[in-house]
Amino acid sequence: MVKVITIIGTRPEGIKTVMLHKKLSQDNGFEALLCSTGQHRSLLYNVIGDFDVEVDIELNAMAENISMADQLSYMMKHLQLIVTEHKPNLIIVQGDTLSAYCGAMVAFYNKIKLAHIEAGLRTHDKNSPFPEEIHRKYIDDVADYHFAHSDAALQTLLNEGHTTDHVHMVGNTGIDALLHINQELEKGNLSPNIELQNLVNTTKPKQKLGLLTMHRRETVGDKQKEIMNSIVTCADKCDMTIICPMHPNPMMDKIYKQYEEHPRIKFIKALDYKSMIWLMSQADIIYSDSGGIQEEAPYLGKCVVVLRVLTERQEMIDVGNHVLFCKDSVLEDSKRIIGQGQNLVTPYGDGNAVKKIVEVLILS
């Protein structure tokens, strides 16, 4: 029996691990525990409820939200206590969050095997995204299983010297979750938020519909305002309403208040996962600095203006699915990709990543 602890803290981590945790929980060869650090508790619980999964161990990292150093100290201390109590054989982390980094370090310090989902993402700029670029490099340095989500990520890992017996191309578990939830929405087994439905239905087809998400630390301040000014200009020129679910990061509050009265932008509360997927499917264009949305959008036939200087998902830019934000060309780029959702490249797997990961873990 393999005792495995999956560590999550944010909504993307939950989206991309919850189906794997559920699969491991149903396999007699594993005793699976799900640990939430509480990094983004409200967003996370909106996700796991759609998959009929419960958290087994819950921390409260947001109580230490004074600085990243305070949160790191809290997580390392409490994750060590959890490891000491439960003595897992394997720890699973996803992506590049502070929760994933702390989980990886605790695994390394205790000589516990570590599986890294979504391994191999790089921009090769330590400040973009910040601090995630450093987190994911360190996680890959100590991981025993590297589960790559794309050919580009796989090649990065091999170029960095990770051996083929440790690197596995499986696709992205987030696409497993996306396809599952979207199918349930289409069948009518799940429904989006009714207020959201009403807002969308009163906008379309009279106007174009844009979706905006923005939360990254490196855009806070003048860059944020530059992005918002460009987007509202696009909205005016394209006769478009922009819906913006508000991220709970307190650093975003100032920009929300500055634009809350703008007639082209509708700020709404953060959405549960199924409602977010539905809104993405309804949008004519997406503006986002989210890595997960960059991956999910083409599977829903949507293009993204990526609100970053660099992206670790450069393959999406190269094939023309998405475009990096540039204030001098954002209007032209927006007009070009609005509604351009046919035959997009979908390089992040076929929805069977969870099955492939479990097969690797069983065989090892």
Layout of helices and strands, plus pairs?
Blueprint: E1 2-8, H1 11-25, E2 30-36, H2 41-48, E3 57-58, H3 68-86, E4 90-94, H4 98-109, E5 113-119, H5 132-142, E6 145-148, H6 151-159, E7 167-169, H7 173-187, H8 194-203, E8 208-213, H9 222-238, E9 240-245, H10 253-259, E10 265-268, H11 273-282, E11 285-288, H12 291-296, E12 304-306, H13 314-318, E13 322-324, H14 330-337, H15 353-363
Parallel strand pairs: 1-2, 1-4, 2-3, 4-5, 5-6, 6-7, 8-9, 8-11, 9-10, 11-12, 12-13
Question: How would you describe this protein?
Answer:
The chain has a 7-stranded parallel β-sheet with strand order 3-2-1-4-5-6-7, sandwiched between helices. The longest helix is centred in the N-terminal third of the chain and has 19 residues, at 68-86. Strand 12, helix 13 and strand 13 (322-324) form a beta-alpha-beta unit. It has helices at 11-25, 41-48, 68-86, 98-109, 132-142, 151-159, 173-187, 194-203, 222-238, 253-259, 273-282, 291-296, 314-318, 330-337, 353-363, and strands spanning 2-8, 30-36, 57-58, 90-94, 113-119, 145-148, 167-169, 208-213, 240-245, 265-268, 285-288, 304-306, 322-324. The chain is built from 15 helices and 13 strands. The chain has 364 residues and is an alpha/beta fold. The protein is globular.
